[in-house]
Amino acid sequence: MESGNGSSVTKFILLGLSLDPKIKILLFQVFLTMYIVTMTGNFLLIAAVKTDSRLHSSMYLFLSNLSFMDTCYSSVIIPRMLIDFLSSLKSISLRGCLIQVYFYLFLGETECLLLAFMSYDRYVAICNPLRYHVVLSIQSCARLIAVAWVAGCLLSLIDVYFVYKLTFCGSNVIDHFFCESKALIQLACSNVFELNIVILASDAVVLLFPVCMIAFSYVNIILTIVKIGAKSSKPFSTCVSHLIVVVLFYGSAIYTYTRPKESVKDSANKVVSVFYTLVTPMLNPLIYSLRNKDVQQALRKLRR
């Protein structure tokens, strides 16, 4: 049976996190709870930003987009994983696998760029506060968000196109709980040189460029705070939440995508993948709301 791109493999088997039935039931309960918390927390944050006029600023527009992105990111992977915990046959078609790879890359790459733009927002707010509303008006913020979404969409389309061109003719077992791109590429029979070049170019855009922008922003923020002296605690507190999110997301992404290909089947990769597909999206609204009095007040209004 031939697939649309001429390969002999039309279905893949996802090994998941565990083969033990008892552990699978336990994991199902844990991840279902975490997924519900993720969706609830992020939707509450979006609702708080939308309904409270005090939060109608560039910083909170970025934040509500991050929450929306996190709900989508988790929903691309977690519901399918929950179904697989209860299923004896964890098969997924080649087309379904490519679709999952596309949305996983699209949302992940978009989030990388969005976090970089959020660091620039904090840089302008602290280092050039008098021009903040000119440089980062709502319109300017919306343009940056649009750039992140469009760039993520186009880059992931290019990546998936080159994955689609690959031939899969050997093993169809993916040692992961979803169609993770590196694990899928490991199964290819054809030459992956072109794809590796494309991946390097994408990494430069969605990892190297954002990391440089974040580093530039926070170096200047720290220098500015040092000059402010005793008054530095208040402006710095607005950056701490974002910096925690950056470390969590980029730390897990860099760990996964800068390791040699021989480590793809390492169980640590699965654990780290759980971290950036579920744990980080679940923690993001908690991190931002716990350190932000305006968000806390908006959430209290929602409960009334």
From TrEMBL:
Bilayer topology term: Multi-pass membrane protein
Key words, A-Z: Cell membrane, G-protein coupled receptor, Membrane, Olfaction, Receptor, Sensory transduction, Transducer, Transmembrane, Transmembrane helix
Major location (coarse): membrane
Residue ranges constituting the G-protein coupled receptors family 1 profile domain according to the UniProt record: 41-288
Residues spanning the membrane: 25-48, 60-81, 101-120, 141-164, 204-226, 238-258, 270-290
Cellular component, GO annotation: plasma membrane
CDD domains recorded: 7tmA_OR10A-like
GO molecular function: G protein-coupled receptor activity; olfactory receptor activity
Protein name (record): Olfactory receptor
